[in-house]
Structure formats: structure tokens, C-alpha cells
Design brief:
alpha+beta, about 30% strand
């Protein structure tokens, strides 16, 4: 896993983008709050900066993927946490994103208390759905610490240990998934 300190400049870039455009444009209750959209942008832009890519203009709607590496369309998925990522934690994807145009996912965790982005790993779209657990809207999901929550929409979860780990910039730049 790669851990990046997210500086004030990156947060300002993300906040300025969100002042111009609402990235949650699905038109339903799964659009993401402003804080969730900020977390997603921090993950995407932090990763792009790390690999030396430019920040996109964000003038168009949802494509289903955030970047292309070696012809692989990748969607960066980032969750907010208040603790460091653990191997037994999960990453998720809402069901309405299942048919987005992507070849795979890069999963990140944003530790809001430490202002650190953890780039955890990646998986192909096919492997994600083969290795994830599905929860229907309204299911009660119990975490390994005993806390529970009711899913607000269909939800897929994959264990962090099921991802191909990312430990370097080269690991990211060498991703090549089946299209």
C-alpha cells in the first residue's frame, strides 16, 4: 500500500472543482454528499498527482472511469475513514455503478484525521464482481467490530486482501487489465 500525505493545495484544487461542478449526477439518492464527492476527488487527484498526470477539466458528466493506463479504463474508488486501512477492511461499490464503462477499479482509503490517502490495490471489473459480496438495499450489514448499518442502496463489498496490492508508482503505471 502507498500512503500519501494530502496537502492543502490538493484539497483546494478539489474544493474548487466541486464549486464549479456537481460530480454526483446520477439523479437519485446515490449521488453522494458534498463530503463524499470531496473524498472521491481527493482519491482521484491524489493518485493522478502521484503518477504525474494532469488534473482533468471535469466539464462533462460521468464516464464510468477516471483514468486510462495501458488501454485499461480505471475507476478510482475512495472511502473516508478515521483510521489507517487494515487488511481485513472492505472497499465498496454501489450497485448502480455496476454497468459503468470501466475495466477495473483502484481502491483507496482517505484517512481524514491524518489527511493521508492510502492507495490500497486494484482489481479487474470481472474479478471484483466474482470476489465481492452483494447486499441488497435495506439489508443489515454487520461489520467485523459488531457495529451494524442498513444499506441505503444495493452494495458490493470486496475485502482489501482480495486486491492486487499497489506498492509503487510503477505498480500503478504497469496495470494492464482485460478489456
Amino acid at each position: 500500500m502507498i500512503v500519501l500525505k494530502i496537502n492543502h493545495e490538493t484539497k483546494t484544487i478539489c474544493n474548487n472543482i466541486l464549486k464549479k461542478i456537481n460530480l454526483g449526477t446520477r439523479g437519485n439518492r446515490t449521488d453522494g454528499t458534498p463530503d463524499q464527492q470531496l473524498t472521491g476527488l481527493i482519491g482521484e487527484i491524489g493518485l493522478l498527482q502521484f503518477i504525474g498526470r494532469n488534473v482533468p477539466s471535469y466539464t462533462k458528466g460521468i464516464k464510468g472511469h477516471d483514468l486510462v493506463i495501458n488501454d485499461s479504463k480505471l475507476d478510482v474508488k475512495t472511502m473516508t475513514r478515521t483510521v489507517t486501512m487494515q487488511p481485513h477492511y472492505v472497499h465498496n461499490l454501489i450497485g448502480l455503478q455496476k454497468n459503468n464503462i470501466t475495466d477495473g477499479y483502484i481502491f483507496c482509503s482517505y484517512n481524514i484525521k491524518q489527511s493521508e490517502l492510502e492507495i490500497c490495490g486494484y482489481t479487474s471489473k470481472k474479478d471484483f464482481f466474482n470476489n465481492s459480496l452483494f447486499y441488497m438495499q435495506g439489508d443489515v450489514r454487520e461489520r467485523d467490530n459488531g457495529t451494524k448499518f442498513k444499506t441505503f442502496t444495493d452494495l458490493y463489498e470486496i475485502g482489501n486482501e482480495k486486491l492486487t496490492e499497489i506498492n509503487s508508482k510503477d505498480d500503478i503505471l504497469s496495470i494492464k487489465l482485460p478489456t
